[in-house]
Structure of Dol-P-Man:Man(5)GlcNAc(2)-PP-Dol alpha-1,3-mannosyltransferase:
Amino acid sequence: RRPADTEIDWKAYMQEVEGFANGTLDYTQLKGDTGPLVYPAGFVYIFLGLYHVTGRGSDIRLAQYLFAGLYLLNLLLVFRIYCRTNKVPPYVFFFMCCASYRIHSIFVLRLFNDPVAMAILFLAINLFLEEHWSWGCLLFSLAVSVKMNILLFAPGLLFLLLQRFGLLGCIPKLCICALLQVVLGLPFLLVNPVGYLMRSFDLGRQFQFKWTVNWRFLPEEVFQNRVFHAALLLAHLAGLGLFALHRWHSSKENILTLLKDPAKRKPASPRLTVNNILWQASCVCSLNASAWIVFILFSSNFLGVCCSRSLHYQFYVWYFHTLPYLLWCTPTTKLAHMPKVLLLGVIELCWNTYPSTVCSSLSLHVCHGLILLQLWYGTAPTPVSHTPPPSKKPTAMSKKAQ
């Protein structure tokens, strides 16, 4: 039998898109039992499709079957990324598949929109690894249009685009992202543009203290204080800046050289082609080309999760499938495997503690801190004396990367 609270968010989603199905284009008028619609337009279109497929949302069992399929597809996309990086031992995949009750609940039982956004994001990352940067940016923007947490990956993606194409070269990719947002939101922008932007991209939205997983040990007045929020934002920006300067940017040149055309950079900062990225990635933690891209994207997201104003239970899916990579992308001795598995277990325990407690939220921060320390010290650049290998086909840049 279905738990009594399984239908809460699903029914609210269906109520929100039902208004659009009935012709309402004023975003401020789209509401459900849990409050107003606060997701961008991509969410509306995807869940409108589910609304019609499931008989106006009445067939929840069918919706759960569909989300079970989404869960399997998500695992396939994640496994493909991990196989390309070749960093995580095979036994860890057992924990990713079978050891998280919370993730199974988020996908198949609660029917949240977070898994939809993350599945599209992992598809975009697969395209980045194949050098389909334009298609990857299109799907990245589509994932953002389902839920804005995908923006936590955006700083890492921007760094990769600058590294690969330079400032002028990455502008078309950014235009792809922006144009899709405009196209998806156009019906609502034409009716009430301010209402759409304020509702779907509300970065100042307050969270309820009773649902927080990570800040339970704070007094509620501190949790809701704007100064605390500003401090977390500054910590997030500082973390991104430090990682960009000292971990993502392995060249000895100034980071501002990323703004130049890759062809005009010195040989010490080669273009992010298949041949040259292997040389550049070897300077940091012996990461291969795919692992280097994934490291930047996953660490960018993880920094955002660590500095989040609040983490609700469904937010676990934001970074659950990235944790094994973050733990094993650094050099690992045989004796270090067990502590890493233990960290995964403690994080899982924290997310399965309901309601959250002072102990569970503090433990979660300790685990996050340990992972950050490992990423910082485990990916420190090592000096190299060799020069990058010349490409056999220096002018043969992949057309699909254009």
